[in-house]
């Protein structure tokens, strides 16, 4: 399972920790349905800015090492909390995107959802063909994860011999719950992170350092 830290070496800022502020806002202040309801253009400005930043980024050796793992290891499953699309770009096959995809839009009226890679967006806020207001295709605080996604992740984790937890502060639920879940299910848990997380003391192996260096070495 990966988090924002795996894309840090691709130049995409993380959410929390040193240098982890997104522009002058906190994720908790803008990544909510309430913030969007109050001010759709403001939230869209933030996403528009992030999409432009992410559009310039390319996968790093950590993303690529996971592609190799998937090719060589039967039963490999990639779970990500990231919305940046760098795993897709690296060539990963099946990706369980717990928090959605910044490159998809969803209509708040008819529910249609579609891919959109335009940067910058020609008009803010964007609209659906039906005229309804569109929103980013991501999961905000207080919203449920995509249908069946957590079940599928839990299923993979419950069958895992090894669970790699890469570049996540493991502080956002239900994704973070997969760490103790993996241990209970009998997997060896390996954390790869530049810093400690709430689970560092309980994992089987905590590797401290940048994912872009450690993952290729581990592989
Ligand atoms: C490196 C590195 C390098 C740096 N190499 N490492 C208690 C229990 C359960 C739930 C809750 C609870 N209290 C509150 C909740 C609810 C809430 C929650 O978890 N809140 C927490 C703040 C406590 N969760 C939710 O609301 C979720 N939904 C939900 O619970 O629904 C229930 C429901 C059911 C039915 C109906 C209705 C509701 C949804 C959570 C959605 C999270 N969304 C975001 C935004 C996505 C869109 C966007 O991008 O704009 O997802 S928030 C943000 O955090 C984003 C991330 O995916 C997520 C996790 O962050 P991540 O990836 O861990 O990044 P960072 O920055 O935190 O950490 C980076 C790490 O990398 C650090 O550790 C660095 O050290 C490390 N690092 N460089 C290796 N080179
Ligand atoms: Zn619509």
Question: How would you characterize this protein structure?
Answer:
The protein is α/β, with parallel strands linked by helices and 219 residues long. It has a single domain, classed as TPP-binding domain (Rossmann fold, 3-Layer(aba) Sandwich). It has eight helices and eight strands; from the N terminus they run ααααβαββββαβαββα. It has helices at 27-30, 33-38, 40-55, 61-72, 86-90, 149-158, 178-184, 211-218; strands at 78-80, 95-97, 100-107, 113-115, 134-138, 162-166, 188-193, 205-208. A three-stranded antiparallel β-sheet has the order 4-3-5, with helices on one face. The chain has a three-stranded parallel β-sheet with strand order 6-7-8, sandwiched between helices. Helix 4 (61-72) packs parallel to helix 8 (211-218). The protein is globular, with a radius of gyration of 17 Å. The protein starts with 26 loop residues before the first helix and ends with a helix. The model has no long low-confidence stretch (mean pLDDT 95). It binds ligand BJW and zinc ion. Ligand BJW binds next to strand 7.
């Amino acid at each position: 399972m990966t988090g924002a830290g795996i894309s840090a070496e691709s130049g995409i800022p993380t959410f929390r920790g040193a240098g982890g502020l997104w522009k002058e806002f906190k994720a908790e202040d803008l990544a909510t349905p309430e913030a969007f309801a109050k001010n759709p253009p403001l939230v869209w400005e933030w996403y528009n800015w992030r999409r432009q930043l992410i559009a310039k980024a390319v996968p790093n050796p950590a993303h690529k090492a996971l592609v190799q793992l998937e090719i060589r290891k039967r039963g490999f499953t990639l779970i990500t909390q990231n919305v940046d699309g760098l795993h897709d770009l690296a060539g990963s096959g099946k990706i369980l995107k717990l928090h959605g995809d910044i490159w998809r839009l969803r209509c708040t009226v008819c529910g249609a959802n579609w891919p959109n890679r335009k940067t910058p967006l020609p008009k803010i806020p964007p609209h659906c063909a039906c005229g309804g207001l569109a929103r980013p295709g991501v999961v905000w605080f207080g919203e449920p994860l995509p249908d069946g996604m957590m079940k599928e992740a839990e299923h993979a984790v419950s069958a895992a011999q090894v669970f790699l937890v890469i570049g996540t502060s493991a502080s956002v639920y239900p994704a973070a719950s997969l760490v103790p879940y993996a241990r209970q299910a009998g997997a060896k848990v390996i954390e790869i992170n530049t810093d400690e997380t709430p689970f560092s003391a309980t994992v089987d192996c905590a590797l401290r350092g940048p994912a872009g260096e450690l993952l290729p070495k581990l592989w």
